[in-house]
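Lab notebook: predicted structure, single chain.

Context: the supervisor wants predicted structures on file for every construct in the current expression panel, including those that have not yet been purified. This is the next one on the list. No modifications to the sequence; it matches the entry in the shared construct table.
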Amino acid sequence: MNPWGWRVAWLLAAAVPLAFLTLFFAWPAASLVLRGFHDGDGWTLSGFQTVFASPRTWRAVGFTLTSATASTLLCLLLGLPGAYLLYRTRFAGQGALRALVSVPFVLPTVVVGVAFGALLREDGLLGWAGLSGTPAAILGAMVFFNYSVVVRTVGSMWARLDPRLEQAAATLGASPLRVLLGVTLPALAPAIVSAASLVFLFSASSYGIVMVLGQGSYSSIETEIWFLTTQLLDLRSAAALSITQLVIVTLALWLSSAAQTRTTASLRLQPDSATSRRFDRRRDWAPMALTLGVTVVLLVAPLGNLLWLSLHRGDRLTLANYSQLASDGAMGTTLWAAGRTSLVTALAATGMAVALGMLVSLVASRRPRSTSARRGLAALESLFLLPLGVSAVTVGFGYLITLNRPPLDLRSSLVLIPIAQAVVALPLIVRILLPVLRAIDPRQLEAASTLGSGPLRVLLRIELPHLWRGLGLATGFAFATSLGEFGATSFLARPDNPTLPVLIFRLFGRPGSETYGMALAASVLLAGLAGITMAAAERLRPQEVTTW
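Prediction complete. Output recorded below exactly as produced.
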């Protein structure tokens, strides 16, 4: 194939995912913006005036910003010592502790909410603290969910910092504290800013956590969108609030990008094994104590308590919660029906997200010579990362107001849920596969071309085998994300055919010990399935993929 033929082929490869993103993300988002500013007769700000005249809206906005900021600060405070311990030192059991710390991030948010709700109830392990239904419960769940983001994002870079920088400062007489503040933390600033922006983003969009733990007393922007849409049927006010959330998220991402640009320096990075050292009891006891304390109190206790309570009904140790959920069913469905729906939609979403993510990664990893072409590929990559900064609730709401009439009337179609889940999972696939392709040594590609290999042969023999190395982790992340997706699915799932996260939320919101026990049992099963999926995927993680 001649050069022009290859250019056309790559343009077609980019056109397919672009068409998907335009149809199922850009169009709903644009329609949402239009609905917020247009009432059918003309342009207006009435939706904004109505929604922001309500004290309830300001409470939701204030709670969202306050809880996300507090969660970010706590995650940084607790996560930096953990990043140092798990990625800069070596000790027995380090791998197991790393895996344990990573588990909460892959759990569905509704399961995290149920786990903390069970922990803080009167009969829970921490029921004596009286924190059930308080902002502290929501904040604790957010830290539980996002702690590993800081540990892994900062730790992955910390593990590769050139140790000679710190050694030189110590040789010149700097104390350990001065080395940390004057050398190490400035070098880690890009990773810290990146982790902080991700934690703020995930905390501000913790829809499932606030829905379960807020108990109607506390609401975020996302839960308020749900309330306006499903309870008041006020779509214009909901659209105005969705636009507000988009502005907040965009501003946060822009500020973090600007901060990273100012703080990123030319750093000499080393392989992980070249920078870590043996654990020193006298020097490292404080990070070890703090990390173990966080692991036990914030990570192990909620999950252990969830499992323990799911095996009880009253004061008896029993499997009744599991057996009743499987046989009698609840909320008009059974565990098997909800599980089958979740698995089918997650598999379909994973297939779409992985296929589209592979195309995007292959196109974005090209190495054109012209500056304009490189800028175009950078813009393409940014476009496909946009869904990472937009709430799944906004995506689901956008579908309700766009895909409700011919030629795309998908309101009653089951295909709409996996499409929404694929949109949510697509940025993760790109973030995983693209670094693997960019890690290919350009000299290897040039050598193959020099020896007579055409572009197709280079693609088949070099690039696709590298891509395959990251496919296991990408597939696992996409499947776990789709399996536990609750934001968009809560808008789109039919009452008679819910997914497991939707079923858990409905059970948790109903009175009675039996329905509560079944909610705990379903949460344990969903958490176990997500954890097993990610454990298997992590074993296939290539070295190039060190962060989320």
